[in-house]
Write a structure and sequence with these properties.
By secondary structure, this protein is an alpha+beta fold. The chain folds into two domains: 78 residues; 223 residues, no CATH class. Helices cover 18% and strands 35% of the residues.
């Protein structure tokens, strides 16, 4: 077990928040999905509704993931005009139809048949870290990418449906959280010192959907349309001591490497990953209005299985003593 503590002065935190305001304004936080017979069109906008972007997903090739991002930044009226022209250009095949509102792409997945798109369709705010909102997933939806006309028979096969049901057993509404403008997969210390681009952040050990987003990230070379889900625990409370209010935040991040049930995952694997590695962080900061200087303290602790090659037999723990009937 290792622990480290760091306390950052008011100026460092204030400078970090000032630089992150531009990041908050440039990330997209709400999306609308439309469809034609040949394409999905995802329209994303920033929180302040100052710009709109368009993502085009091909629906005619069931075996390949073809995604193209429009490099143009639109205003609201320009985006509405673009959608009108797309609708008119596809009138003969049904036009442009609204599908759903969503709050980010969890990823794309393929089993035996077509690709599926995983979307967050409802979210709820569970806290904030110095002006950066943190959300939990309230509802998700899995949408087949190809249209029904080009879908193969495999899409409705017994094995395909079994794999889809297995994926649906993962309840993303419990123990998953994300943020658009704060890297919740990293500790506060690393956030203040990190200068890496967003693409690399998905490849850290605490981003649960790294594999699911790999296809779209490699196509677009950015992470504007996806959210990085962290699996673990997030809780925030406001407390008061000696007349001063402060926020206490507890975050636990579970590694995506070598994770599993207690008795099946033990020790270390051949890649040096220990079983069920968890990073726990406690953040304490003054509850002052966003943008004002504040002192912040972060304590990070790591735990995991004993880093040796070992295993544990479950049968040896299930002791069943003989039942002896005593006759009086």
């Amino acid at each position: 077990m290792e622990s480290s503590a760091a306390k950052y002065c008011c100026d460092n935190i204030h400078n970090h928040e000032s630089s992150s305001q531009s990041q908050t304004s440039t990330c997209m936080q709400k999306f609308r999905l439309y469809e034609t017979r040949s394409n999905f069109y995802m329209i994303g906008r920033d929180k302040s509704r100052t710009y709109w972007r368009v993502l085009k997903i091909d629906r005619l090739d069931p075996s390949e993931l073809n995604i193209r991002e429009d490099s143009t930044t639109y205003t609201e009226s320009e985006c509405s005009e673009l959608l009108r022209r797309i609708h008119e250009g596809n009138i003969s095949t049904g036009g442009l139809r609204f599908v759903t509102i969503c709050y980010g792409i969890v990823g794309f997945i393929k089993f035996l048949g077509p690709y599926y798109m995983l979307l967050i369709t409802k979210r709820r705010q569970i806290g904030s870290i110095r002006g950066h909102n943190v959300y939990a997933v309230s509802k998700t939806e899995m949408i087949p990418v190809p249209n029904a006309a080009v879908n193969s028979s495999i899409a409705d096969s017994k094995d395909e449906n079994r794999y889809k049901k297995l994926l649906c057993t993962v309840d993303l509404t419990k123990d998953f959280f994300f943020s658009y403008s704060y890297h919740v997969m990293l500790s506060l210390q690393k956030n203040l010192c990190n200068n890496e681009p967003g693409q690399v952040l998905y490849e850290t050990m605490f981003v649960w959907n790294e594999f699911l987003t790999r296809g779209i990230r490699s196509h677009l070379q950015n992470t504007l349309w996806t959210v990085a889900l962290v699996y673990g625990f997030f809780k925030q409370a406001t407390l008061s001591v000696s007349g001063r209010d402060f926020k206490l935040t507890l975050i636990a991040r579970r590694s995506r490497h070598y994770a599993g049930t207690r008795y099946l995952k033990r020790g270390v694997n051949e890649k040096g990953r220990v079983a069920n590695d968890v990073e726990t962080e406690q953040i304490v900061f003054e509850d002052v209005p966003d943008g004002l200087p504040a002192e912040v303290t972060s304590v990070v602790q790591n735990r995991g299985s004993i880093p040796l090659f070992w295993s544990q037999e479950t049968s040896r723990l299930n002791l069943k003593p003989d039942i002896i009937c005593m006759c009086l």
